[in-house]
Design brief:
heterotrimer; A mainly alpha; B alpha/beta; C alpha/beta; B: alpha/beta; 8-stranded mixed sheet; 4-stranded antiparallel sheet; 12 helices; about 35% helix; C: 8-stranded mixed sheet; 12 strands; globular
Amino acid sequence: MSDTPVIPEEPIQKARHPFVEAWEMFRRNHAAVVALAVLVLIILGAIFGPILYATDPFEMVWAPFSPPGVDGYLLGTDYLGRDMMAMVLNGARVSLLIGLAAAVVSVVIGVTVGALAGFYRGLVEEVLMRITEFFQVLPTLLFSMVVVALFKTSLPMITFAIGVVSWTAVARITRSEFLRIRELEYVTASRASGVKNLRLMFKVILPNALPPIIVQSALMVGSAILFEAGLSFLGLTDPNIVSWGQIIGSNRQYILDASFTVTIPGLAIFVTVLAISLVGDGLNDALNPKLRQR
Amino acid sequence: MSETENKPLLDVENLTVRFEVSRGGGWGKRSYLYAVDDVSFTVKRGETLAVVGESGSGKTTTALAVARLVPAYEGAVKVGGTDILGLEGEALRKARQRVQFIFQDPYSSLNPRQRAEAIVREPLDSLSTKSEAEKQEIVDRLFRAVGLRKEQQRLFPHQFSGGQRQRIGIARALATQPELIICDEPVSALDVAIQAQILNLLRRLQAEFGLTYLFISHDLGVVQHMCDSIAVMYMGKVVEHADRLSLFNNPLHPYTAALLSAVPSVDRARREATRRILIPGDPPDPVNMPKGCRFASRCPVAEARCRESAPDLRDVGGGHRVACHLVDERAVSPLAALT
Amino acid sequence: MTEPLLKVENLRIELKLRDGVAPVIDDLSFELMPGESLSFVGESGCGKSMTALAIMGLLPEGIGRIASGKLIFDGEDLTTASEARLRQIRGNEISMIFQEPMTSLNPVITVGEQIAEVLRTHQGLSRKAAWDQAAELLDAVRIPNPRSRVSDYPFQMSGGQRQRVMIAIALACKPKILIADEPTTALDVTVQAQIFDLLRDLRAQTGTSIIMITHDMGAVAEMAERMIVMYAGRKAEIGPVDQIIDHARHPYTQGLISCVPHIMSDLTETREELTEVPGIVPSLREFGRDQCLFASRCKYRSGECLQHRPPAKGFGNGQISDCWHAEAL
């Protein structure tokens, strides 16, 4: 036995929050990263576009149906001679805003219902689940149409109408996560540490239930945008605002003659929702605990 | 000797825990599974009582019931004289300060989204009224006590090894300076080299802080090393309860003897000397328990009276309790006749 | 002088990491004689399960591969065998049983059918013949009422019984080698005793060689004739079980044996602290380095331990230890 050389002490790692690790995984999914970049561009376009390109979307600037690029208007003009570019940029704001806001409404309702049902079980769960099922089987488009038709067609009302029919998926996911997590040992450990119920639900269980909820929420933004497009297409929208669906709706009779008035906003919706879906997929893989190493 | 030293710290009386099992038609008679059936034992302050048994014995459920993490159906659990089963609200929280729990699986007993220091501090946040500074000081001391470094406080559970996570769990259990710590298979999920580290740590902490342990395990070697007395459980009942030397040198209940003989041994002499008692078959259906002794169907020396009536847990001398018709005050194992 | 049934030469198995490869098995060589019982001992991550998977040709696709070395089974090199040939061998000449009987058995197929399938695939038996044989096998593994249990589903059986079914499936085609990967870790100790007893008897009857993978030295002492102690992908020590337990020649083996509290026959009041092996096993990234991988945890550590991989030193009685200080221990 000779003199023992000093063992180099294990170097201390830097604290890595699980979300930081998730970002590392997300970064490796090329499709998702590209989609995220596209989404960021769209959002920036929606925020700054109408400021930089200051044309009023309702103003008639030229003759109707000017094809894209022909008369100096990059995206042409619609059936009333309004600047398509201005309409698309302003429409982006509305569509994205409604999409986001409706998703937020859905998530808030859904998480609350799901958390209470999954945590308390018993009668609370029964009642909440029956309510959830009721909303699940509602024909969503019809119901929101009714809501919008009965009340005024303002942005908040549209947001509410979309949000109130879409929360059931989030509720089910939240409940199922709560059912799973409440049985895990660290929840029991927190109970042994004296943590009270409300805190247990929202500070211990919920942060761990987030991954599938986040993924679902991301996807819901996409479907809310589509939903809004559908409502606008049917004319159930605030006539004083421009949204992508509304552009399609008002130009739909001219689809054969001046298809660009319909396909351009349609493309905008398509690209946005696709980007959101790919980001959602990327999030799913990144947050999936099975891929994390022990 | 003062009053408190004479009385045991933990006194479990007739503890029963049952779960409803819905079998057969929806409107049929309810049937129950008695996971813990009329169990009684005591633990003296500063000592370690090991509760051993195999799967289905009820040892983990007993531990959870004593810790008030699972509702008990009947019985009393007295900690320092106070029955904690009847407590609620503020009184229950005060009781939780005194009785803490170390869990088996280091991978699932720590909240993945909480930093190590927050995990250790959680009991202090909920159960004590100390200031932030005091709590931080306690957390620092606890980390040192379990052999972790201050710089590791900000890390997340997945950044630690299994053994280190278990140390965090131990630190958490010590946070409120409890008198009684219930250890539920604390080393079963760890590699053997790490097991030794954690067991030594637990013994050192017990000596340093005057802790009392209720130690649940299926590993008899670990139990032999750690405990002062042992209770052997089978199908929800305690079949034998004795101090360490008595139980290992003179096991009286046939199940205890079979259990000891089944443990594979590195020691060649012991292997050759021990007659392997193989108990055939499987335990009976826990929902439809046969009347009489629950071990009778697999016992090598069972007699007719064993199948007729269930034996009581009786003291056969020197505090050595056995639940077997064939054991009397002579304290001789009924299996001795077989060799 | 009989030929070894399995001869592993300089086996190196690489696992793909995010940034490069790691040798999860690093230059392993050993022999298995017909009818012999050999045990691989080590803690988690030492590579013992990988060796078994490599022999069966079941390394995780795309992630693990045999980088170099030979696996000579009955004269045939399995590293160069086709997938079709490996499928012929699996379940037939070399079988494996796993740790978790619940997940290794298909929950929606009867146990009889799972045994019969192996018989029909490898031995071409008819449905009826295979079914009858399945019942006989259940009897051989000591399941009571085999004729009626043959149509049971796994969930209707206890853990111990399911493990017996696994053994029945593994032994159905009378393989030359049975690999048991932690077969009793998930079972109660009394059930473990039954399973060991069963394996010992079956081995005596059929002459099958058994490779048992475990972390439990006690189990090794009960079941094996020779053992290989693995650490960080390398062989630390190999030799007859009794010799090694009597006098281990590698610090890790010594630590492994003495850190576990063993049941003593004559118990006294004295209780010593368990010998601790400080530190933790190295991560996969550190495998393969040209030094002794146990050095950071070893109390006999010296300069050369940190600079060069230790050589194998033999001790005449079949015991070989990979340690710079083997003689001094």
